[in-house]
Amino acid sequence: MKKMKAKGQKWLKGLHIFFACIWIGAGFCLVLMQMGLQADSGGTLHGIDVSMKFIDDFVVIPGAFGSLITGLIYALFTNWGFFKHRWITVKWIINVGGILFGTFYLGPWLNSMAPISAELGLDALSDPAYMYNKTMNSWFGPIQVATLIFAAFISALKPWKKAGKQDK
User: Fold this and answer.
1) For the residues of 144-159, what is the DSSP string, one character each?
2) 49 occurs within a structural domain
């Protein structure tokens, strides 16, 4: 397969970093909103929930898929490949795992909160379904963000040798 030239790789790297920053930054904001904002009325609670859903739908998801697509282009059109280095394999696991976990768990938990708070107002804070979803996001949102930050650091540090190489 034809490989990308150096200038194209620099642009691709910039886009990959841009999308990773969006994903990590938006995830971090969701964690801060979840933990730091306190509602004093039903309208405020619903506003927080709708705002978090908006950030998830229009910032987190595009950042995650932008990271995935630029990573795929990296793997296919440069010499980096999918499994040439252990750190790349770990990044793939984090990226795909993060997208799947967000799609099947974090997203649905978050998406179910706004309709409950719209209907129940501040009483949503006593609703078992609402509190379950809020608790799950409070626990697993920070873990997701920490994992993404770890991926950013291993991308910068490139800590492990090529796959198949033995330590001497």
Assistant:
1) HHHHHHHHHHHHHH--
2) yes
Report residue 156's pLDDT band, with 50, 70 and 90 as the boundaries: very high
Looking at residue 84, the DSSP 8-state letter turns out to be S
Residue 121 · residue 45 · CB < 8 Å: yes
In angstroms, the Cα distances linking 162 to 6, 13, 19, 159, 167 are: 21, 20, 26, 10, 10
- Number of separate domains in the chain: 1
pTM: 0.91
Q: Under a CB-based contact definition with an 8 Å cutoff, are residues 84 and 160 in contact?
A: no
Which two three-digit tokens encode residue 12? 């691709």
> Three-state SS string across 44-79, please?
HHHHHHHHHHHHHHHHHHHHHHHHHHHHHHHHHHCC
Domain extent, residue 12, equals: 6-157
- Cα(151)–Cα(162) distance, integer angstroms: 17
Let me know if residue 61 belongs to a domain: yes
